[in-house]
Amino acid sequence: MPREERVFSICDAVIDIIAALFSISSKELRNPSRSTADIARVRQIAMYVAHVTLALSMRDVGAGFGRDRTTVLYACHQIEDMRDDLEFDRIVQTAERVISAAFGISDEDANEAGR
Q1: For the Chromosomal replication initiator DnaA C-terminal domain, which residue ranges apply (predicted)?
Q2: I need a labelling partner for 10 at 20 to 30 A (CA). Which of 34, 44, 55, 99 fits?
Q3: What number of H helices and E strands is found in the chain?
Q4: What is the distance between the alpha carbons of residues 95 and 92, in angstroms, rounded to a whole number?
Q5: Cβ-contact 48, 14 below 8 angstroms
Q6: What pLDDT, in 10s, does the model give residues 60-100?
Q7: Residues near 113 by beta carbon (within 8 Å), at least 6 away in sequence
Q8: Neighbouring C-alpha atoms within 13 Å toward the C-beta of 5
Q9: Is residue 12 packed enough to be buried (19+ CB in 10 Å), middle (13-18) or exposed (0-12)?
Q10: Where are the chain's structural domains?
Q11: What does CATH list as the number for 3-104?
Q12: What is the pLDDT of residue 60?
């Protein structure tokens, strides 16, 4: 499978999994226009997890989510800043664990990759 197709496939899977995790429509996460703040935040978490947990470049995540690389950069900064809140951090950790499990990434693999 060509690299670009693989990236789109991975991002599609992340979108579907995160949408199910947060009980929202994956269609809403894929919507190219602006969304409600809640939907946008879930999309930011999905982009963050795709970048951090799956080690996709911001450019690849942007392409896979139909967004620009700078949008992914902004999302990652937002999520990192919000992780100081323990409840929010637990939500992000759950998303990271679910994505890791879905893609067969063990805690040991993640630690070796510096994630």
Answers
A1: 10-79
A2: 34
A3: 7, 0
A4: 5
A5: no
A6: 999 999 999 999 999 999 999 999 999 999 999 999 999 99
A7: 55
A8: 2
A9: middle
A10: 3-104
A11: 1.10.1750.10
A12: 97
